[in-house]
Design goal:
By secondary structure, the protein is an alpha+beta fold. It has one domain: Alpha-Beta Plaits, CATH 3.30.70.3090. Strands 2-3-1-4 form a four-stranded antiparallel beta sheet, covered by helices on one side. It is globular and about 45 Å long. The model has no long low-confidence stretch (mean pLDDT 96). InterPro entries: SCO4226, SCO4226-like. It holds the Pfam family SCO4226-like.
Length: 91
């Protein structure tokens, strides 16, 4: 499955509360993504919470865009990437 980095910009900042409301919001994203064969691996959020970089496995950029729209999330840049594991090179 191809892997992608999705850059998302949040003009008002990204807030996911650390409570049941936040858990439900994340669960909805996971469920919506699964309907399209998309898996959210994890995300990196910058300190000011205005931008995130999300790692996804997905069949295509179009599937990611469909998920973003269904989840009400931005998807400002989608980049196909390959994993480079530095430990692969160690003896």
């Amino acid at each position: 499955m191809p892997r992608y980095v999705i850059e998302r910009n949040f003009p008002n900042g990204l807030t996911i509360p650390m409570n049941d409301e936040g858990r439900q919001a994340v669960a909805r994203v996971i469920a919506n993504n699964a309907e399209r064969g998309v898996t959210w691996i994890h995300s990196y959020v910058v300190a000011d919470r205005m931008k995130s970089f999300c790692i996804y496995d997905a069949p295509s950029p179009e599937a990611i865009l469909a998920c973003a729209q269904a989840n009400g999330l931005p998807a400002d840049r989608i980049t196909l990437v390959n994993v480079l594991d530095p430990y692969f090179y160690l003896p």
